[in-house]
């Protein structure tokens, strides 16, 4: 028996969220005795990169290298995962909660007759039945879901799991996926980045500014800091509403929801609607001149001070590192 992990990759690299899913599966296998962790990668990606998935706890990686699978063809991916599921005799599929993961998991659930639980934050409680804790209401609450089907799909919330890094290399095995025309009923024919910058929803570090920055002419220091850190830039809703920044940077309940390792909020008050988009961040740093700003309650680190003094100094210190 095995646990199957569907892994995503972009630009030649396995996504960190997928490595978190492998780490989760590794701990789950140790808990439930479901045997080894087998990962499935689809499309064009290097063998060495796939072998390194072993560090997160997979003993084997099946590689469906058919080039037609590279562009995230959802139906075809769901078919491939179902075939791998059968091949390795799994009862559980683990994957990262993401747009592609959600789309694949929903189709897969029907194909393999499985319960699907999304936004999972910790290992299931198997002491009586199979109970899974998941995050709901944009991270403001948790729900416990009881799963009664034999086959299960668990979609893991970003940053909910500690990454395992001490495993050995995985063996990589070619996996021949049987695909039909129906698997390609719709497909992405090309993708292109809208900007050369780091993409906000995917970013590992986000530097975000609010109305405290007074005007668009002051965004240079936010961009400079983001550049130093290799970060994406974000903003609060009023900032994009007034037109200081583009709408695709608006973070929050009604904007982009981010889950970076580091979110730096500068001159943002921390209204509940903004927090709804950032509360899955691993570490939040707040810079605000008002010590009573609500954002400090959600912060891991806070700097009470004027952004116009703090941010350039912070940037200089980071550059000197
Ligand atoms: P402000 O509330 O004006 O706060 C500015 C902050 O900057 C203050 O805390 C101030 O102390 C600080 N400051 C001022 N000068 C400086 C300085 N020199 N240095 C350092 N700090 C300084 N908002 C979102 O962001 N995202 C959403 O998705 C969103 N959705 C919404 C949905 C609904 C239905 C509603 C009603 C509201 C929504 N909002 C959303 C708006 C939200 O309620 C807040 O109004 C908004 O987040 C406030 O933006 P802000 O913090 O940039 O501005």
TrEMBL record:
FAD binds at residues 211, 267-274, 288. Its cofactor is FAD. Residues 3-188 form the Electron transfer flavoprotein alpha/beta-subunit N-terminal domain. GO terms for biological process: fatty acid beta-oxidation using acyl-CoA dehydrogenase. One of its GO terms (molecular function) is electron transfer activity. The keyword Transport applies. Keywords: Electron transport, FAD, Flavoprotein, Transport. Binds 1 FAD per dimer. Pfam families: ETF (PF01012), ETF_alpha (PF00766). The keyword Transmembrane helix does not apply. Belongs to the ETF alpha-subunit/FixB family. This is Electron transfer flavoprotein subunit alpha/FixB family protein. It comes from Algoriphagus kandeliae.
